[in-house]
Amino acid sequence: MDNVIDLLHQRIAREFAVIYDDLMRDSDKYDVYLVQFDTSINPKPNARDRGVHVELAFIGCSDNAGAVSLPLAYELYPSAAAYNIMHGFNQTTHTGITGMAQTIVGWGLQASFQHDHSSLRSGLSQSIYASGFGAGQCKFGWDFAPAPYENRLAAGMRTTYAILRVPKSSSEVMQASLHVDWPKRDRRYPGWNPLHWFRLDAGENAPQNLSIELPHHHALQLTHVSYVPADTGEKGTGGNSAARPTTDSGKLAAVSTAASGGNSALDLPPATPTPTPRPAVIQVTFRHPVDPNLIITANDQILRRVRDVRGRGLYSDSTTSNALHLAGNGAEIDNLASSRFGLLESDRLGDDTWFQADSRTILLNISRQTAGTDHFPVIRIIDPSSGIGGELTALAREADEVRVGEWFFTQGASLVTSTFQPLFTKPYTAGPFQVFVQNVQKKKDTQGTDHLQSVDLRLVSRATAGRKLIYLNDQAQVVIEANPSEDHYILPKHDNNHLPSEQTGTAGQTGTALRPNWPLDCRQDRGALVCSIPIRAFQQFCGASTTTSATLLAQVAADTDFSCLSHFKVWVDQAPYYGRPGMWGDQDVNDSGTLNANLNPELIPRGNYHISEEKVNITSPVAEYMWVANLDLVNFDKNATYCIPEFAGSADAPARKVSEAAAARKWSGEQLSFWPQHLESVKSQMQPCEDPTTLQRSAFLVKTTSHGISIEVPFAFFPQLPDSLHLKIAGSADPPVEIPSLREQLIPHDVRIIDLGNKKYQFQAEHMRAVHSVYVTSKKDGTSKFITIQSTSYSTLEVDASSLTDGVSYTVQLGIGEGKFGDAYVDLFQSDDAGRESLQVLSIPDKAK
Asked: How does 676-713 read in b/e, with b if 16+ C-beta sit within 10 Å?
């Protein structure tokens, strides 16, 4: 037993010597492998009293070669293997003396002495039959000898091991020369025998080098990852959201619902109990068989491996009844009932568990509570046998195919973190967005032809009737899709035996079809996304083979202009993120859907308007206010003059109103003198968008700032403000660019109504100073009336609702524009978590109750 323990200690000590050696810890330069060598021995008839000497030398190795740039054998197993032999020795010694003397007369003397000595000795010794040589060198091997009391090597396989230290610069297949000879076995005293002084058995070299193939990728390697986000039943069904954006009908539906009665501020139907969602399932397939004792975590929650209890003999018959119960005493029964396999395993398939389907495939069951709804969970996989692991999103970049929801990705290197959608989401619906070309970099070839080097797209969401503007964040899944002229194929990274037979090529090689879609790496900028186009991935796609022929699959030539792709479309899928509403939709890159060297940066609005309030007539005692809306622009030309075509002719109605008021003397003198002067001032500063001879007067002044434009909108002219606006350079033939709706941003949204008592209410929201009247409609009988405004400020509006009936709810409309140049009444809307708007109501409490 002591010998066995000592042997184990020696092996452990040698393993730790390798682990803690300075050379082994230099992992940025070297890799360490445990390599098995199987030596088949078939002795020849004349191999009597001979051993085998097997020597391997890496190509380039010599007796004086340095070991820095070459692989070397750091340790050999066995370094000395021996038989335990029992020796016995028996010795017997006889000593005797005999003497005799006699006289002449007959007298004599005779004497004898005899001594016997017997000695018996025994001992245990070792006879080495295999020994390694060359540890720490690039030339190494083993000597094999016959077994004790045998004069011939037994035929068969000898298995040995070597720890190799290999530089990272080495190829995956290393070449080593092999030399074998059969030296005669030395006798007990070889120096005394002249026949052993000279040896003629020089041995022979192998006819070809030995190839040692090493796996250079030690980390867990994946071939396939697949999951579909849990269906909430509220995202909606497919379709082209850009072709079918949300229209006013959605808003009208919300209005009609609110008008039907109810007792909540949003007047939504009562919520039904939400059933507990089933766990989401992720399928992960590895390139090689994996350790069944993997350690997997999701958002720092350990997932337990599911194992079956069949045949484990955990149950026994009860002595008092025929019922089965867990075997053991009370404490053991309690432990087995809670967990039959310990902390990391379970016997039930449920939340936060994983199941090994085969030697390469595992299924992860992750609960909503663990995964959350805002982003894809952080899933870590650790191999306990090697201590190597990583995050699933990083490991998936080496996979041959990754499926996320409806998308299949075959160029894993282009995957980004936002590609992986949350396993569970809150409700969200479709929404429109715009795609702009923000940045373009080109490079000329030797012939002077321009080629795209990098392209950045800017994605900007748009507000629609019944839905407020959705701000995009960098957790949104953004995918660009194209139409290829024909299918393209590449050789997969994994074993060909695991591919469908219909993809088999001519020389036993196989090809897998590439998918023409790529996730985009995006960053957030003022509620928009700036996404980089993967030009290199496009070139690799078009450079791949168009046939599964084995001779062509390995030929990948980059197509500089990726001319095989056309009709580029961008898809956005943004789940609700930490309380922010989500949206999904698609849009073409441009009108023609092309990406080529003719592409140029576009004028793009950056974010939304920054709005402030200023007095129009500072010196006049009559308070007249206007909004000043500043809009930053990307690719902005400071020397250009910008105009908004929709503003042309917007001053006609105000000018007519001024003339009518002057004829009837309905306004004060300050107003009659101020407004004509203001309109003339705007006319003198505005530049026409088209021909200067056809100048149309504008009620709104557009100015150029250091970062974009500013628009001056007097409160009184709000009714003339168009719903949609476009921007262009004055006198330029370039098409105008759509900019955010200023009218929509000036309308108060998500108003907070506070009861001040005595039927006095305060409305809190932005731009309340512009409200000149409040119009309410009873939801009970449909009657309408105005209520008195007591005071206004930038963010508050106080009203007197004493004329309204107790216990009745009213819809509210706000009149904006001071009433001088027309009335513009807007409904009071409030948004839910998904960004959908519904009518807000003013409920008068019933004092009788």
From this structure: eebbeebbeebebbeeeeeebbbbbbbebeeebbbbbb
Instruction: Please identify which residue in the block is written with the tokens 């509006």.
Output: 797
Q: Is the dihedral of CA 253, 258, 262, 266 positive or negative?
A: positive
Beta bridge pairs of residue 140:
56
Q: Say how far apart CA 217 and CA 286 lie, in whole Å.
A: 13
Cis bond before residue 78 (omega within 30° of 0): yes
> CA quadruple 63, 67, 69, 74: dihedral positive or negative?
positive
E strand map for 412-471 = 429-430, 433-444, 450-461
- Where are any strands of DSSP class E within 78-107? 80-102
Which tens digits make up the pLDDT trace of 625-666? 899 999 999 999 988 889 999 998 888 888 888 888 777 777
- Annotate 564-581 with DSSP letters as a single string: TEEEEEEEEEE--BTTB-
Give which of 719, 717, 718, 684 is closest to 703, Cα–Cα. Answer: 684
- The DSSP line for 9-74 is HHHHHHHHHHHHSHHHH-TTTEEEEEEEEEEEE---TT-TTB-EEEEEEETT--TT--SSSS-EEE
Length of the chain, in residues: 849
Please give the model's pTM, rounded to 2 decimal places: 0.71
H or E segment and range at residue 127:
strand 108-133
Residues 367/352, Cβ–Cβ less than 8 Å: yes
Secondary structure of residue 411 in the 3-state scheme: coil
CB 347 within 8 A of CB 304: no
| Among candidate residues 428, 466, 421, the one with its CA nearest the CA of residue 234 | 428
Helix (H) or strand (E) holding 820: none
Q: Longest C-alpha distance within the chain, in Å?
A: 196
Q: Kindly state the percentage of the chain with pLDDT values over 70.
A: 75
Query: What 8-state DSSP symbol labels residue 656?
Result: H
Please tell me whether residue 670 adopts helix, strand or coil conformation. helix
The two three-digit tokens of residue 680, written as one number: 């003339």
Kindly list the distances between the CA atom of residue 611 and the CA atoms of 186, 341, 625, 739, 745, in Å, as whole numbers in the listed order. 101, 64, 13, 15, 9
Q: What percent of the chain has pLDDT over 90?
A: 33
User: Is 187's pLDDT higher than 60?
Assistant: no
pLDDT score, position 835:
74
C-alpha distance across the termini of the chain, in Å: 92
Helix axes 669-685, 652-664, angle to 10 degrees: 160
**From CA 578, how far away is CA 571, in angstroms rounded?**
22
Contact 702, 642 (CB under 8 A): yes
CB 710 within 8 A of CB 621: no
Give residue for tokens 């404490």. 331
The 10s digit of each residue's pLDDT in 679-734 is 888 888 877 786 655 557 888 999 999 999 999 999 989 999 999 999 988 888 88
Phi/psi-derived region of residue 266, left when phi > 0, alpha when psi is between -120 and 50, beta in every other case: alpha
Q: How many CB atoms lie within 10 A of CB 51?
A: 19
Q: pLDDT tens-digit profile of 719-767?
A: 999 999 999 888 888 889 999 999 989 999 889 999 999 999 999 999 9
- Per-residue buried b or exposed e for 477-514, using 16+ beta carbons within 10 Å of the residue's own CB: bbbbbbebeeebbbbbebeeeebeeeeebeeebbbbeb
C-alpha pair distances (Å), 367 with each of 115, 402, 844? 93, 21, 44
Q: Report d(CA 256, CA 265) in Å as an integer.
A: 15
Tell which wins on pLDDT, 363 or 848. Answer: 363
Rg (CA), the chain: 44
Q: Which residue has the tokens 């748009």?
A: 462
More confident residue, 335 or 680: 680
* Confidence at residue 548, expressed as pLDDT on a 0 to 100 scale: 72
Q: CA 227 to CA 412: how far, in whole Å?
A: 15
Answer yes or no: is pLDDT of 230 > 90.
no
